[in-house]
Structure formats: C-alpha cells, structure tokens
Design brief:
Strand content: 5-15%
Largest sheet: 11 strands, mixed
CATH class of the largest domain: Alpha Beta
Number of domains: 3
Radius of gyration: 26 Å
Number of strands: 16
Distance between the termini: 75 Å
Mean pLDDT: 91
Shape: globular
CATH topology of the largest domain: Rossmann fold
Structural class: alpha/beta
Helix content: 25-40%
C-alpha cells in the first residue's frame, strides 16, 4: 500500500512537471495531444504488463518513456511565426497605396475603422557588407507588396521560452494559461529595417503623425508589442508610425576602421541613424497615407525616449519633426546614467569584441554569423558622440538652443527603478554604501540624510521576488530619481530657459499589471488597456481616455490641454509643479526636487 501511494505521488509530480514544461514552453496543441496519448499508453501498459516485471526492467521502461516524452517536447516546440498586423482571421485588404518604392496594401481592423500597414521597408537590409554602415535607401519593388504581417524584430539575444513565459507571468502578468493561440515564438533577424503604420480608414488629409520609437535598453524590443499598438490613437485621428532599428552590437558597435570607411566619419550610432532614416521615409511618404509631414511628433519610452532625446539634438534630424514626447528616460545630464557612453569607451568595447571573436579587422567581424555575434559577452546599449549623428554632449546643444523640438511633453512614473533593482538587497546598515554608485562617495551621505531608509512599498513590488530590507524603498526612490526622473527635470529646465513650451507628468496609478513601475503608463497613453482587460478597472479606463486626449492634443497642437480636461500647466510657468496622472489628475508639487539638488552637485562634481 505504501509503495502504491508513493508511486501515485511520484506520478502526480511527474505529470505536473511535464505539464509545467509544456505550458510554459508553449508547445503546440498536437504536442500536448501526442504527449497525452503517450502518457495513457504507457500507464495502461505499466498496469497490465510492466508492473509485473522485475525492478530493473521497470526502471528501463521509465527511462524509455522519459526519453520519448522529451522527444515529443522537442519536436512540438513552438514554431517561429510572423505576427499578423491585426487580430482578425482573413482580414479585408485596403486599397492600394503608392509610395516612392512601389505600390502596397495593408489590412483593416475588424470594425473597419483603422487601416494597418506593417513590414514596410525604409532602408536596405543591413546585412553582409552593409553591417555597420549608415542605412541605405530602400530598393523599389514590382507589383503590389502585401503589408499584412510585422517584419521580424531586430537581432537580439533570445532566452529560453520557459523563462520568457515566467517573466510574462511574474513581471508583466500577461501570460495566458492554456491559450492555443499563444504557442509560437516571434522571429528575429538582422534584416529588420521596416516600419508600420496605423491610420484612420478612408480618405484622410493632413492628419498629424505620431512617430513612436520602442524601448528595450537599445538591446531588445519589437514593434508589435501590444502596449503601444497604434489602433486606438488612429481612431482618434492620428496616424501612428513605429519602426524597428538595429540593436545591441549591430546598432551601437563602434570601431575606428568603420569610422574611416564611412563618408561621414561616423561609428557607434547605427541604430540611431536607422531611426532618423525611418523618420526621413515618413517625411517623404506619409502624405500617401493622408498624413501631414509638417505635423510630425516623435515619441518614445525608456530607451526609446533616450533615442527621442538624441534625435532632438541630432543635426541629421533637423526639420524632420516639430514636437517630442519622452516617457521615462533621457540623456540630458552632464553624465547620463544610461544609454550613453563616451566614444573612448565605445571604441574600447569594439576592440574587445574583435578580440573575443578572434578577428583582426572589420571584414573578419562582418563574417561572423549574426546568431553568434549577438551573444557577445560585451554590452552595447549606449549611443555616443560621433561628431555626425550626435556632435557634442546633448546638454551643450540645449544650452546653445540648437535642439530640434519646438515643444516637449515628458515625464516619469512613481516606481521607475523598482523592477531594475529587484535583485539588489539593501539593508539599513549598508544603505549609504549602496548609494555610492548612484551619487558617488562625495554625495551618498547627502542622499542618505535626505531620504532616510524605509522599506519597499509592497504594493508596487514584483510578486515572489525578495526585495530586501528596511532601506530598499529609499534606495529605489533615489535610483529612480537619478536614472530616470532627473533627466526629465533637466530636459524641462533646459528647454524652459530658451522659452520652449514644456509639459511634464508624474504617473502614479496602481493596478494589477505593471502599475506605476517602468513602462506602466504605456497602455494608458496609447489606449491598449483592453489587451489585458482583467488587469484594469473602469477607473483605469477613464484615466486612459484622459491620457489619450492629452497625447492627441499635444501631437496636434503642441499643447495637451483641451475641453473637459484638467488644466496641464507649462513647466515654464511653474517649474516646481508637474501633472499627476493617477487616481487624481491635476498639478502637484514635484516630489523629487530636493534629490535633484544632490544629483546636480554630483553631476557638476
């Protein structure tokens, strides 16, 4: 009897383990069915035949069964699948649109209110001899190009499918259990320079354009992410565009030989130049979709916001847009905390990568397969001053008044750093030491005195993960202020000093999703709460509607205010006030001003 109970317990654990692996591994439906047949056949056979055999034979049968199950898991692994432009089976095609490279069609959303065009090439594939070359004009095509699927994401490291699923479950809380439509993985490719367009259906003329740049630390990300899908804003009259761009070692590798072969003497900013090339394509072609090239606003979140900041100071982007929206990042500090590095550091990393792969010149490195090169041990997640795309430290361009944007809407969330700091334990006794990397030895004590050690706000912490002790909340607050919030405060005051209109926000809304952590504002601002309906309430929907109106008004006029909305005052007029977007919507005192004073001293030092 004891043996049978033990065997039953083992059997249940065995089944649970394989169900976990199949579910989080996103194995195909036929794989589940085949595994089920295998399990049933084995246990029928075990009960009738194998249980009567000697222990050695039974162990061997179990090993065979385990091997067969692993084989089923392998052959039913999720396939690579291009993402469709709309969640509609057999969508209706749009009329033919003619752009400079040829004719194309898109597809309509299910309600017919939005036309979506995906996978439109804006540059030649940057492969072979074009790896680490400025983006080249796209080639023309014959016939009508069908643009109904997103192109692959730019080449980036891909971890385990199981780990990715667990991240969606624990971090983003978007994993869907037993969903047969989710059993696939998205493709990546070095050939990724494509853009996507969402527009109101029908005859549209002179519509304002929102050009969005995705985040991902300049090392990852994709254009089909549902949090910034453009359908909702298109229904409100905007034309929304986003683009893929080269990432990591493909987008931000720097080398003196590359600078020497470039007609512009540039290296280290290929991803940024891709974004500018896409913006140029939009200027040249958006009128074919009913957009007005004189009414373009660039926008981005996280590393996308840092990219927006870089485009705002790039001489290569002058005249290509008018307004800018930046969410949760920027590079205006005298020494930016992230997404920016000195050219010397960039070149040194480039030399290390060349040695890593055992080559002596760029021709040799171009010969390394992309799937191998992407796994370099050295991180390439930062832009640099190359003298062409970025000619000087960005804050200097703002001080001279030579930046490109004529109005700015920017801001940050209440818990920006929490998801980045979750592995760092900070106890009261080592709190000051932990601040050393944020404020330096000179000002860490000032930070500790200003923000005494307090525990983390559990409402905003990731589930399951241990977050540290009584000083973790204060540590996260100062890291948030330094890594994210300060760049917006500095950007706002630099523009205000020149009389450029600035509107700054502070997103504080709690929900069951990302809440006010990094990226939590995106589904609100871009109208995509419905993609994760169970995470949000009617209160969230009301806030999302207000935020969309603010964003649409700003893209249209350079001023977010409109009828029925709480007044959003300019930073220029009251630099100590910002707009809270949360359970309440209205102007509040900027909560980090005292921390910014310490960061100012650290930056000047």
């Amino acid at each position: 009897m004891k043996f049978k109970k033990a065997f039953l317990a083992f059997l249940i654990l065995f089944l649970a383990a394989f169900a976990f692996l199949f579910e989080f591994g996103r194995n195909t439906v036929w794989g589940w069915c085949l595994a089920g047949v295998l399990f049933a056949a084995f246990f029928i056979l075990h009960g009738k035949v194998l249980s009567k055999r000697k222990i050695g034979f039974r162990l061997l049968s179990w090993l065979v069964f385990l091997a067969l199950t692993l084989g089923v898991m392998k052959i039913s692994a999720p396939p690579v699948k291009l993402i469709p432009a709309v969640d509609v089976k057999d969508p209706v095609a749009t009329d033919v649109v003619s752009v400079a490279q040829g004719d194309l069609t898109g597809v309509l959303t299910e309600d017919g209110s939005v036309e979506v065009y995906t996978g439109i090439p804006y540059a030649k594939p940057p492969v072979g001899e074009l790896r680490w070359v400025e983006p080249q004009p796209p080639e023309k095509w014959d016939g009508v190009r069908v643009c109904d699927h997103f192109a692959p994401a730019s080449m980036q490291q891909q971890g385990s499918v199981i780990v990715d699923s667990l991240t969606k479950l624990v971090g983003y809380r978007t994993f869907r259990f037993f969903d047969p439509t989710d059993n696939y993985v998205e493709p990546v490719s070095e050939d990724s320079l494509y853009l996507n367009i969402w527009k109101p259906s029908g005859d549209v003329k002179n519509a304002p354009v929102l050009f969005f740049i995705h985040g991902g630390s300049l090392t990852g990300g994709q254009t089909w992410y549902g949090e910034y899908n453009g359908e909702s804003l298109a229904r409100k009259g905007l034309i929304v565009v986003n683009c893929a761009y080269r990432l990591n070692v493909f987008g931000y590798y720097a080398n003196e030989e590359l600078a020497g072969e470039s007609p512009n003497g540039t290296t280290g900013n290929y991803g940024l130049l891709d974004q500018i090339a896409a913006l140029k394509w939009v200027n040249d072609n958006i009128s074919a979709f009913g957009g007005d090239p004189s009414k373009i606003t660039i926008a981005g979140e996280s590393a996308g916001a840092s990219s927006v900041n870089a485009i705002c100071v790039s001489p290569q982007a002058k005249g290509l847009f008018r307004y800018a929206i930046a969410e949760s990042s920027g590079i205006t500090a005298k020494k930016p905390y992230h997404t920016f590095r000195a050219i010397e550091d960039a070149l040194d990393t480039g030399d290390r990568i060349m040695r890593e792969f055992g080559v002596s010149d760029i021709a040799g490195l171009r010969g390394v397969p992309a799937e191998k090169l992407v796994n370099t041990e050295y991180i390439n997640s930062a832009m640099t001053v190359d003298g062409y795309a970025i000619r000087e430290m960005p804050y200097l361009t703002y001080e001279k008044g030579e930046n490109n944007e004529t109005a700015l809407l920017n801001g940050f969330n209440a818990h920006e750093a929490d998801v980045f700091c979750f592995m760092r334990k900070v106890e009261v006794e080592d709190y000051g030491e932990a601040l050393f990397l944020v404020l330096g030895g000179e000002y860490a004590k000032d930070g500790r005195d200003l923000v005494p050690p307090e525990p983390l706000d559990k409402a905003y912490s990731l589930p399951i993960v241990e977050q540290g002790g009584g000083a973790k909340g204060s540590y996260n607050k100062i890291v948030s202020a330094a890594w994210f919030n300060y760049s917006h405060f500095n950007w706002s005051r630099l523009l205000s000093a020149k009389g450029t209109p600035v509107y700054e926000y502070y997103f504080t809304k709690y929900n069951k999703g990302l809440a006010a952590n990094h990226g939590g504002e995106m589904p609100y601002a871009y109208g995509n709460l419905h993609r994760h309906g169970w995470l949000y309430t009617d209160d969230d929907a009301r806030l999302s509607e207000q935020m969309q109106e603010y964003w649409v008004n700003f893209v249209s006029t350079g001023n977010p205010n409109g009828e029925g909305l709480p007044e959003w005052k300019r930073f220029n007029d009251e630099p100590g006030k910002i707009m809270e977007l949360g359970d309440r919507v209205g102007m509040i005192d900027e909560p980090y001003l005292d921390i910014y004073e310490v960061i100012d001293k650290y930056q000047d030092h």
